[in-house]
């Protein structure tokens, strides 16, 4: 099979590799669509993300869908031919965190496209059978792949306890922010304010149902007429995070989704006097059933986020398009093309 292999910063080659064999409780998936994530782009450009360093050739891509073509022992042969969305992190399923239902926090997590685990920019991948989630035929391959970033949005909304009537502020309207916006609306939020510095992305947020969009370069979050009770911080920018927290109502909740700023000053009086809750959120656990239902029912639109489709040989182009084109939102690689 062909796989797009990252050998070092900006050094990506498509090479032949033996097709993997599904082991016990695993399935082999012929990959149809892979969404490109900012982390893939970061690995491509820098060969590392923090303490994760690409020391051996690595296959990128962790937002994937496809069709099951073979099963390992312990998996019903009936699953061959099933269209699936891949949940790309398989935990050990035995540790304290896993048993508490927080398997995203499993220290033994094996996550696609995080050194040394290969990802999905390949014609086929193996994954644990329980992490290959069947999707309805009405769902496109692209949407099935994008259930992964949607899961980040769902996990963030759950952490923020977004519910009917919630007033939500989303800072950052990248793919993750836009997923968070759509999920908040689907969960019943009645006000969803979105800030960004990219007018095209703000326009998209408005089309997806945001009730108010703000250009962070000129508009001030502090001047919102109604204070939000939940902040979903999806930019990773220090200023956006601090302004977002300062905009929160009393007893508000700030969910830090965006990564990138390693430290930020904590406004202690604000946190105390308003009894703010601030929490991180890391990936997701148990989100695929919700993600599938939201997309299948039309409550969340993922196809509308796709701005380009590439073949496997053009993976390097796909990985860098967000740097060249401010209108790019979500780019898909189709490994069979
Ligand atoms: N916590 C998790 O599990 C998790 C999972 C996936 C991604 N992430 C993180 O979520 C963040 C968003 O991911 P993405 O793919 O949408 O990235 P992205 O870079 O496409 O989106 C970030 C957006 O923030 C906007 N922005 C920049 N400055 C701003 C400001 N001052 N105010 C408001 N917006 C501003 C940018 O224009 C951009 O649209 C990233 O930091 C990513 O690392 C976290
Ligand atoms: Zn575990």
What are the SSEs and their pairings?
Elements: E1 2-8, E2 11-16, E3 26-35, H1 38-46, E4 48-49, E5 52-53, E6 58-59, E7 63-71, E8 83-86, E9 89-90, H2 96-99, E10 110-111, E11 124-128, E12 132-134, H3 141-145, H4 147-159, E13 167-171, H5 175-186, E14 191-196, H6 199-207, E15 212-215, E16 230-233, H7 238-247, E17 253-256, H8 268-273, E18 277-280, H9 288-296, E19 306-311, H10 315-324, E20 330-334
Parallel strand pairs: 13-14, 13-16, 14-15, 16-17, 17-18, 19-20
Antiparallel strand pairs: 1-2, 1-6, 3-7, 3-11, 3-20, 4-5, 7-8, 8-12, 9-10
Helix pairs in contact: 4-5, 4-9
Bound molecules: nicotinamide-adenine-dinucleotide (NAD) and zinc ion (ZN).
Residues 38, 152, 171-177, 195-198, 201, 216, 234-237, 239-240, 257-260, 281-283 line the site of nicotinamide-adenine-dinucleotide.
Structural account:
The chain has 337 residues and is α/β, with parallel strands linked by helices. The protein contains 10 helices and 20 strands. Strands 3, 7, 8, 11, 12, 19 and 20 form a 7-stranded mixed β-sheet that branches. Strands 15-14-13-16-17-18 form a 6-stranded parallel β-sheet, with helices on both faces. Strands 2-1-6 form a 3-stranded antiparallel β-sheet, with helices on one face. A hairpin with a 2-residue loop joins strand 1 (2-8) and strand 2 (11-16). Helix 4 packs across helix 5 (175-186) and helix 4 (147-159) packs across helix 9. It is globular, with a radius of gyration of 20 Å. It starts with a strand and ends with a strand. The relative contact order is 0.16. The mean pLDDT is 97.
